[in-house]
Structure formats: structure tokens, C-alpha cells
């Protein structure tokens, strides 16, 4: 087995463990997972491949690609948590392989291997690759477009890979790159085109600067001119033209536009307005659903979301900047990786609505820079002060200690009986200690290998073991049993007082009509729908207080169960079937 096959096998093994272990174990997590999975289920049931529908209503939040992938998975495996998440897991594995390929191309085989292992075992990328959301398709196709660009513009010599051209000159490469962006647009909208082209464009704007622009400035005015030099109008327009914008738009339109037009006409423009105006422009201009943050939101998000590999973030940044200034064989690779991360962080920092998942597509770039740093450190290309390794591996030990102490305390408050989850802290604590001891002995490869083993063990421990233990406290199966204790989903019509949670809708396996007025909810509960089904009402105990004055206690029975982390209970209200003798007595009285 040659090195490439061996390394690819390692990435497949690590990513497979990280993303597939107990994939269908926990129930779908509110609120995004059940919305996406439920939308795909309703579309499949109606043989509808055009109009996104959830809870029998138009879903304007996301384009259709994620639903298509889930529908295919449902058709093969049935409508389950596993089949809803499987497309994300497979695409996460694919993105890990693409990260390995790009890292290998830019920095060499060992750096690529480190990059692939790193991205497969980071916290936030693991979430994206195990969740029934559009993030994994967006990341995969965005990364695929960038991978095609890298392969199409670099040439491998005996000792290194160099950029030999600014833009691919092969039409299959150009079309493949922009077709991948078209698929990303089908996955999550315009950002599937805007962000990858911005990454490539930013790299070219800096790379194509005239000779002498890279000299270190000595005055503040010179520093300012250097900062804005990439955006000089003529230089900017020439670079944009180099990227063949007409071909780009034509190719993306050929892939994505047919569905966008189809859904526009099928919904009389309602989906188009909702998606582009409310969910794109609206999120950029206003903070929606309380998702806000300051300029430090995404830098902090990267440190947390890229854990445990984020322990190297500062030394990776400093080493990369030093390498770029020296203009050595790794300068272009670091520049591209930094443009990849910087473009996503900068652009999404400008938006008013902020979520950690928004910048996950830049994680491959961060992993590639981290892999390059680790490879060079392992090979002794530079010496680090012991303070850096102590800070890095000490922070892993700190996290492990915090988990050992904090989780039992949090468990007693939030998930009683799960103090055992605190034992997971031994993984980073012991792993960080082994890495620290090895680094103190100048055994750097052993230290970084210990970090990799720690990351590989943490991923299934968190996502497969801990997530399922916590999921038990949501008591989803108990909720479903209570809903249908007197029948089946076909014989019971579930309604709600105020808005139902998306997981209620998914696990009820039917749309849930909501009523906002107590009188309407009462009348609906004691009536029957056009199919003659009896009705069961779902709400929360705090909302139930508004409904109780309109109900007779003798006519209803109520089941309650904790509403996980919401500070209230789920209440399931059903009419009580009256005894025959009582019904006859009431009938006689009425006469």
C-alpha cells in the first residue's frame, strides 16, 4: 500500500469513527434537526421534490439539496434519525478527505494527514457532520470547489508543490469548480457562491500584487497603502475578470437556477421572498432569534469549536505570518489558508445575526494551517520556547479538569444521575499530561500523536456516548406513548395550544395544527376533524394555565413530563371518554 492510500485509509477510519458511531442513537435535537428531517419526510410522503413543506406549511428557511439527500436516504433506510443524519456524516467524511487532499497538495503528505485528522476530530465540525442540517452539504461542496482550484493551479515538483498559475486553464476544472459552487447554492443559498469565490479572490488579490508591494512598510501611511492595495480599482477588476465571472454565473445558474425558478412559480414567489428577503437580507441586517454577538464572537467561536486542535491556534498564526513574510516554499499555502479563514470570519462578523455554524466552512482552511504547523514542528523545522507547548497541552489538561469538576455539578442541576459523564474529563486530562511530558522531553512527535489520540477518543465519547445519555432525559419516547396511548397516529389528530416544538411534529409523525386562542383550542379538542379522528392537545404547563379556565377538569386527563432545559413541562391533554350511563343521563336531561 502506497503512502497516499494508507493516509486516505487513516482519514476514512478516523472520520468514520467520529461521524458514524451511534449516529442514530440520540433523538433529533430541537430545533433545526427535526425541522429539516421533518420537511424531507413530508416531501417524500407527498412525492414532492420541489416545494419544501414542514408541518403542512411552506418552509422558506433553506434551499432543497439537503431535503433531497435526506429523501434518498429515507427511501433506502426508512424515516429514522440515522437516515436523516447519514448524508451529513458521509459528506463530513468527504470533506475530511478533501481537506487531506488540499493539505497534501500545499504542504506535503504528512501535513495533509494531520489536517485531515484534525478536521475530523474538532468539536464544531463534528456537530455539522452528525446533524441533520444543511451545513455538511455546504461545507463539502464549498471545499470541493476550493480543492479543484488548488489542483488546477498548482504543480508538484520533486520537493514541493508550487502555484504555477493564478487560475485554472482547463475547462473541465473551471466548470467542475463552479458546478460545485452551484451545488453549494442549492444547499444553503448565495453564500455557497459568494464565500468560496471571495476566498479565491482574496488570495489572488494579494498574490497578484506588483513586485515590491510585499516589502515591509516603515510608516503608518505606507502600512495603510499596503492594506488597501489589493482593493485598488484596476487591480481588483483585473483579478475579478481573471476568475471568469461570466462562466461562473452561467455554470452556477445552470445547476441551481432551475429549482429556484421552479419553486418560485410553484409558490407564487412566496418562497423566494421568504428565503432571500427574510432569511438572507434580514439576518444580515438584523439580529434574528436573539443570535447576536460582538467582533470577538467568531474568534472565540473558532477557539471553542476547533478544540482540541485550537490549542495550537496562536503559534500556528505566528508561524504562518512569519513564513509568509519570508516568502519561502510554504508562504503561498499559509496565505491561502489564512485567506480561507479570514474571509469567513470577516464577512460574517459584519452580519447582525451570528451563529457558530456560519463559519464552519472555513474549518478546512484552519485544519490545513494547523496540519502544516504540526508537521513542521514534528520535523524540527523550528524550535519553540517550552512556554508554548506548556500553554497548549496545559490547556487540554485544564479542560479535562474542568469537565471532571464541572459536569457532576451541572448534572445535579440539569440531568440528574449523569455524574458519570464527568469521567470523560479523564480523556483530555490524561492525553494532555502525556503530551506535556513528551514535549518536556523534546519528543514532539509523541506529544502531537498523543493529542491526536485524545481528539479521536473524545469525538465518540462526546457525540455517541454523552449525547445519548443526555438524550434520555428528553423522554421523547414517553411523549409519543402518551400521545397515542388510545390509538395510533392514523386514528389520533394532534393539535397544540400556541406553537409546537419541531420535535413534537417530527415524532408525532403528522402535522400539528396550532391554536392561539383558548376558546378555539377548547372547541378543537372536544371536536373531531373531517376524518373523524379524536384529538389530543399538546402544550406546556405555563401555557396550560391560560387554557385551564376554559376546560372542565372532569372532562379531561392530563399527562405531564419535563420539557428538557426549558424550565417547564410538556402537557398532553385528552378528552375523557364518558361512561355510557353518564352519557345517557346527560342525554335525558337535555331532552
Q: How helical, in percent, are the residues?
A: 55-70%
The geometry reads as globular
Mean pLDDT: 91
Low-pLDDT runs of 5+ residues are 580-591
Note the total helix count. 25
Placed side by side, the strands forming the largest sheet appear as 6-5-7-9-8
Q: Can you characterise this structure?
A:
One of its GO terms (biological process) is lipopolysaccharide biosynthetic process. Its main location: membrane. Keywords: Cell membrane, Glycosyltransferase, Membrane, Transferase, Transmembrane, Transmembrane helix. This is Undecaprenyl phosphate-alpha-4-amino-4-deoxy-L-arabinose arabinosyl transferase. With 591 residues, the protein is an alpha/beta fold. It folds into 3 domains: 3-382, no CATH class; 388-474; 476-590, 3-Layer(aba) Sandwich (D-Maltodextrin-Binding Protein, domain 2), CATH 3.40.190. The protein contains 25 helices and 9 strands. It has helices at 3-20, 32-45, 65-77, 81-107, 109-120, 123-130, 135-153, 171-188, 191-207, 220-228, 233-242, 245-266, 270-285, 297-305, 313-326, 331-350, 363-378, 386-414, 426-440, 444-471, 476-483, 502-508, 518-526, 541-547, 580-590; strands spanning 53-54, 57-58, 154-156, 161-163, 492-497, 513-515, 534-540, 556-563, 568-575. It has a 5-stranded mixed sheet, sandwiched between helices. The protein has a two-stranded antiparallel ribbon with strand order 1-2. It has a two-stranded antiparallel ribbon with strand order 3-4. Strand 5 (492-497), helix 22 and strand 6 form a beta-alpha-beta unit. Helix 1 runs parallel beside helix 5 (109-120), helix 4 runs parallel beside helix 7 (135-153) and helix 4 packs across helix 17 (363-378). The protein is globular and about 85 Å long. The model is unreliable at 580-591 (pLDDT under 50).
